[in-house]
Amino acid sequence: MRSTSNPAFRNLPTGGAGYGSYGPNVGFNQPQGMPGYGMPSGYGGPQAPSAERPMTVDDVVIKTGASLATALITGVLAATWAMSQAHARALGPVLGLMVGGMLVGLVLSLIMIFRRKPSGPMTLLYSAAEGVFLGAITGLFEFIYPGIALQAIVGTAGVFITMLVVYKTGAVKVTPKLTKWIIGATAGAAILMLFNLIMSLFGVNTGLRDGHPLAIIFSLLVIGIAAFNFLLDFDMTDQMIRQGMPARWAWFAAFGLMTTLVWLYLEILRLLSYLQND
């Protein structure tokens, strides 16, 4: 498999029970009605035994949809509660909920990344925790800038759909050179954000997160990098399907896509807050 900047997809096992004996599966760029796409037995070829059924696009779509729905439900609940607390000028509990959701999500993500084993319950728990985290932040932003939550959701969905279309149509090919460029850009952005965080602890303003023109440019750059990370996520998922990895690994693909979605949503929310101040 090619490298990726998403830690969720690093060092995945290669191959699977569905590859070789049953033929390669079909990825995002392949037509429907082929072996491995979830068609009935006999339509496109024999299927693997149920215990080792190869992963399909449908598996990824369903698992990712379940993860998104979980995050959306917990996010709406957290955002509603956070706004009520903000109206009551009780920000302490909201910050506590925000930090709690962030820490739980971080711990769960680290466990999944280092265990390298797909888990539906852990993926859904991670999605729920991130939903709480994002919901609490969104509630505060919505209280300060009414309407920003819907804008952030629509913007995130728009970027995701656009990059999926770009990948499916082959408008941008995921080549080794492009992969290295995206990984390098992601690492560079992460280093700059860490540098800014450290400097802020010492009271130094680097200008990267203060809402001024430099911060807007940096935020746009990060959104662009996050968007291109979707291409790597789609490509890695495509490879997992082609290599016939067991269906349970669709949960890991959903987890990887969720991590990029969380990052993108946070950055879009931040950019919109900057623009509201102008």
Strand content: under 5%
SSE string, helices as H and strands as E: HHHHHHH
Coarse morphology? globular
Number of strands: 0
Question: What is the SS-derived class?
Answer: mainly alpha
Q: Give the total of domains.
A: 1
Which parts are unreliable, with pLDDT below 50 for 5 consecutive residues or more? 16-26, 30-50
Q: What is the average of the pLDDT values?
A: 85
Question: How would you sum up the major sheet?
Answer: none
Distance from N terminus to C terminus (CA atoms, Å) equals 45 Å
The protein's oligomeric status is single chain
Tally of separate helices = 7
As a percent range, the share of helical residues equals 55-70%
The rounded Rg comes to 20 Å
Explain what this protein looks like in three dimensions.
With 278 residues, the chain is an all-alpha fold. The chain has one domain (55-277). 67% of the residues lie in helices and 0% in strands. The protein is built from seven helices and no strands. The chain has helices at residues 57-87, 91-115, 120-144, 148-169, 176-201, 213-242, 250-277. Helix 3 (120-144) runs parallel beside helix 7. The longest helix is centred in the first third of the chain and has 31 residues, at 57-87. It is globular, with a radius of gyration of 20 Å. The relative contact order is 0.19. The chain crosses the membrane at residues 60-84, 90-111, 123-141, 147-166, 178-202, 214-234, 246-266. Keywords: Membrane, Transmembrane, Transmembrane helix. InterPro entries: BaxI_1-like.
